[in-house]
């Protein structure tokens, strides 16, 4: 029972006891007073009648006189006894009372003492007269007084209740805010509230606010440490873009992972004659030129949903853009921006750009060689030249053909889930990673996502694809009770049909829902926080889990994670690869895991290939790993 209800109950019991006691005492007092008055009246009536009857002295005449008096007067009982105590006359009236309920008359039960008087016949004792006056009028008066008292006390009780409601309402608001603040902490959200006027609650609220501020400061400090070590491990110290090792790891994952795009653009940007610039401009100004180039490149590609920019060496920058239709457009945009940046610069500064198309499964060495060859041709042409090698286009079909192909693949019922284990430190399976496979035209086995997911995004079929994957996972969980993780595309969160259909699936498979883990790509999810919170709330209401995959690049600010209410985070392989050999990578992973554990999230590592990396990750405190190093 809540505190407010307990206070209400206490107040109600107090009012009932107070007013009930007061009403009962007043009624008992009135009853006793009336009984005393009627007893006295009975005695007076008996004496008066005895004086009248004594004038004749004969019992027979007395009896006739009493009979007439009983009919005329308000008596309940009259009795005349002779000298030997034998009854001569006895009359009793009906106890009915007009306007007074019978239960009230029985409950009050006025019992006055009958009046007694001796009758004399001259000097001799003639008999005894007993008189019991009627209590009808007393009961009527007592009933009226009781109703007036009850009405007055009920009115006073309502007034006191209204006053109590006002006081409790004044207490409830700050209490409710404090409860909401505590609830927000359980949901990993930091909320401060205004201090109430009530001294005791003010102290409680002040203490809660201080605690929230300290926790927030602690998490901010941890986030700062995570960002520091991320830059140390993954960023070029001069320009802030990815260093060569991190960029190469990201490129390798895009080429090999079936969950990334089927193809895209690789651009190499070279700032010309870097050694000559160092001599002519000086080292400080040359460093500024490189920083300007990096910022200009980031501005150019910043509109893309997914991209990676890295510095490969002193003068060369690289850009990876998944799912681009044209190589020329991004390459020419970078060239135009750099030309505008350095226009009029003396001594002159120039750059050249080489662009090639990449596709899933392409050898990285061959791809880099082709990009370097295009860059060399651009250098031969002169400042701000752009060379394109578009020979790798593998998406020859149009959107309509792809849309029909994907719909057919989804409707045939041959879609399947692959299964890869995610294990904990004891090699126990936490859940199975289950990417979707679709049977495409001309393929004997279902194709991995890299072959069709980019076109599913382009044809806006990701929600249908994800719902098929969720349904297959729920049915598989029902068969073997093994938890399974399914990817949801960030684009699916924008589809208005996803939430109601996903809710219907979870309700239809309620027994399997606790074993379902839903994963959303980090970058896309954090850009759609309202939709992500809606997904988390809907999933949690049905005991499913929601988390981020391919994470680690945008976790320097924990506020978004706190607000989202997630259950777990899976670190991208580019964040953890080589952790056993690189101290900065290890420090970054340690800080990241501590921060995520501090806000109550489980932390897993994706694509762990090296046993040494796996051992380093266990030491860092991760809760599980996937990849070649994971064994069921």
Gyration radius (Cα, Å) is: 47 Å
Q: In percent, how much strand structure appears in the residues?
A: 15-25%
Shape: rod-shaped
- Low-pLDDT runs of 5+ residues are none
Number of helices, where a helix is a run of at least 4 consecutive DSSP H or I residues: 20
Fraction of residues in H or I helices = 40-55%
In this structure, how is the largest beta sheet organized? 8 strands, mixed
- What's the total count of β strands? 19
Domain GGDEF: 262-391
Protein name: EAL domain-containing protein
Domain HAMP: 169-220
InterPro entries: Cyclic-di-GMP_PDE-like (IPR050706), EAL_dom (IPR001633), EAL_sf (IPR035919), GGDEF_dom (IPR000160), HAMP_dom (IPR003660), LapD_MoxY_N (IPR032244), LapD_MoxY_peri_C (IPR042461), Nucleotide_cyclase (IPR029787)
Describe it.
- This protein has 20 helices and 19 strands.
- 53% of the residues lie in helices and 17% in strands.
- The chain starts with a helix and ends in a 7-residue tail after the last strand.
- The mean pLDDT is 83.
- The longest helix is centred in the first third of the chain and has 52 residues, at 3-54.
- By secondary structure, the protein is of the alpha/beta class.
- It has an 8-stranded mixed sheet with strand order 11-12-14-15-16-17-18-19. Strands 6-7-5-8-9 form a 5-stranded mixed sheet, with helices on both faces.
- It has helices spanning 3-54, 59-72, 102-108, 136-186, 199-234, 244-256, 274-281, 283-301, 328-341, 364-381, 399-411, 449-458, 462-480, 498-508, 522-526, 529-540, 559-564, 573-576, 583-598, 611-620, and strands at residues 75-82, 87-92, 115-121, 124-133, 263-271, 308-311, 316-322, 351-359, 386-389, 416-417, 420-423, 429-433, 436-437, 484-488, 516-521, 545-551, 568-571, 602-605, 624-625.
- The chain is rod-shaped, with a radius of gyration of 47 Å.
């Amino acid at each position: 029972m809540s505190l407010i209800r307990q206070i209400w109950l206490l107040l109600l019991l107090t009012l009932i006891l107070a007013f009930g006691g007061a009403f009962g005492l007043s009624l008992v007092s009135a009853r006793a007073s009336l009984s005393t008055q009627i007893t006295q009246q009975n005695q007076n009536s008996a004496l008066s009648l005895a004086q009248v009857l004594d004038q004749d002295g004969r019992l027979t005449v007395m009896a006739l006189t009493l009979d007439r008096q009983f009919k005329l007067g308000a008596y309940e009982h009259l009795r005349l006894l002779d000298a030997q105590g034998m009854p001569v006359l006895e009359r009793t009236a009906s106890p009915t009372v007009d306007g007074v309920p019978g239960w009230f008359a029985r409950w009050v039960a006025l019992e006055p003492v009958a009046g007694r008087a001796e009758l004399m016949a001259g000097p001799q004792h003639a008999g005894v007269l007993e008189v019991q006056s009627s209590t009808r009028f007393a009961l009527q008066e007592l009933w009226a007084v009781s109703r007036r008292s009850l009405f007055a006390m009920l009115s006073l009780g309502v007034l006191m209740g209204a006053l109590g409601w006002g006081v409790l309402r004044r207490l409830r608001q700050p209490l409710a805010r404090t409860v909401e603040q505590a609830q927000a902490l359980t949901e990993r959200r930091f909320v401060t509230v205004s201090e109430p006027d009530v001294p005791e609650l003010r102290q409680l609220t002040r203490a809660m606010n201080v605690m929230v501020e300290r926790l927030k400061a602690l998490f901010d400090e941890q986030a700062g440490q995570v960002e520091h070590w991320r830059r140390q491990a993954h960023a070029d110290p001069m320009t802030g873009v990815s260093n060569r090792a991190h960029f190469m790891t990201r490129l390798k994952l895009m080429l090999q992972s079936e969950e990334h795009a089927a193809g895209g653009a690789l651009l190499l940007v070279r700032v010309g004659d870097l050694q000559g610039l160092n001599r002519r401009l000086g080292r400080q100004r040359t460093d500024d030129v490189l920083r300007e180039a990096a910022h200009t490149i980031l501005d150019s590609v910043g509109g893309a949903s997914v991209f990676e920019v890295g510095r490969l060496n002193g003068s060369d920058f690289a850009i990876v853009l998944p799912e681009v239709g044209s190589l020329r457009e991004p390459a020419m945009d970078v060239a135009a921006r750099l030309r505008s940046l350095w226009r009029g610069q003396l001594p002159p500064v120039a750059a050249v750009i080489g662009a090639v198309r990449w596709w899933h499964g392409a050898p990285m060495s061959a791809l880099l060689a082709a990009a370097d060859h295009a860059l060399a041709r651009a250098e031969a042409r002169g400042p701000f030249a752009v060379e394109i090698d578009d020979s790798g286009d593998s998406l020859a079909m149009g959107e309509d053909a792809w849309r029909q192909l994907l719909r057919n693949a989804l409707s045939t019922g041959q879609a399947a889930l692959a299964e890869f284990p995610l294990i904990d430190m004891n090699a126990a399976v936490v859940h199975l990673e289950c990417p979707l496979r679709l049977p495409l035209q001309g393929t004997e086995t279902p194709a991995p996502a890299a072959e069709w997911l980019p076109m599913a995004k382009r044809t806006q079929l990701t929600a249908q694809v994800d719902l098929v994957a969720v349904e297959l996972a729920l049915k598989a969980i029902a068969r073997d009770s093994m938890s399974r993780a399914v990817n949801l595309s960030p684009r699916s969160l924008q589809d208005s049909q996803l939430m109601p259909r996903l809710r219907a699936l979870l309700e239809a498979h309620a027994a399997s829902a606790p074993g379902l883990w839903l994963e959303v790509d980090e970058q896309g999810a954090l850009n759609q926080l309202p939709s992500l919170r809606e997904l988390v709330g809907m999933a949690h209401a049905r005991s499913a889990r929601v988390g981020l995959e391919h994470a680690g690049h945008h976790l320097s600010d924990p506020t978004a994670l706190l607000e989202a209410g997630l259950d777990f985070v899976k670190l991208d392989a580019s964040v953890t690869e080589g952790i056993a050999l690189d101290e900065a990578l290890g420090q970054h992973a340690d800080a990241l895991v501590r921060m995520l554990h501090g806000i109550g999230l489980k932390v897993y590592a994706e694509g762990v290939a090296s046993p040494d990396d796996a051992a380093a990750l266990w030491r860092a405190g991760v809760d599980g790993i996937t990849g070649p190093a994971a064994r069921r």
